[in-house]
Specification:
By secondary structure, the chain is an alpha/beta fold. Helix 1 runs parallel beside helix 3. It has a single domain (3-144), classed as 5'-nuclease (Rossmann fold, 3-Layer(aba) Sandwich), CATH 3.40.50. It has 7 helices and 5 strands, in the order βααβααβααβαβ. The longest helix has 18 residues, at 43-60. A 5-stranded parallel sheet has the order 3-2-1-4-5.
């Protein structure tokens, strides 16, 4: 594995030092960085990060600091070494494949879009703490980071 797609849960835990997954996320990022693995995310991943991290941040941050803190967290994600932003395919017909991926791997639509994005960008590794991708890992279609 030389390319690794980062699921938003990795990023959310990484930016919340009080979360149950903070240390696990940090250690995973450090391990992959030391192995010269390139990181990949998509706009969908960033949307999920901003939504979920923002929701948690709102609960503990004064309104006047919210956007500054959210911007700081996002900027630190975008500063990860060897980070690339990739997109799903632009061919409209390719998006029909999402339904097939949902059926084959029992994925929700967003997860199927992540998988499609990994496939079209030839990304063979995936870092996630979700169990939704168990079938994908079982088929060896992706390597779990």
């Amino acid at each position: 594995m030389t390319k690794c797609y980062l699921d938003s849960n990795i990023l959310i835990y990484l930016k919340d030092e009080h979360s149950v997954g903070f240390m696990r996320s940090r250690e995973l990022i450090e391990k992959l960085t030391s192995q010269n693995i390139s990181f990949y995310i998509s706009p969908l991943c960033l949307d999920e990060f901003l939504h979920e991290f923002g929701k948690a941040l709102r609960k503990k941050t004064p309104e006047k600091d919210f956007f500054t803190d959210l911007t700081r967290a996002l900027a630190s994600i975008l500063d990860l070494p060897q980070l690339f932003i990739v997109n799903p395919p632009i061919n409209p017909n390719s998006h029909v494949e999402v339904v097939s991926l949902m059926k084959t791997y029992s994925l929700r639509p967003r997860d199927a879009y992540h998988l499609l994005t990994m496939q079209v960008n030839n990304i063979d590794g995936f870092a996630t703490f979700d169990t939704d991708f168990a079938r994908v890992f079982a088929t060896k279609l992706l390597q779990k980071a």
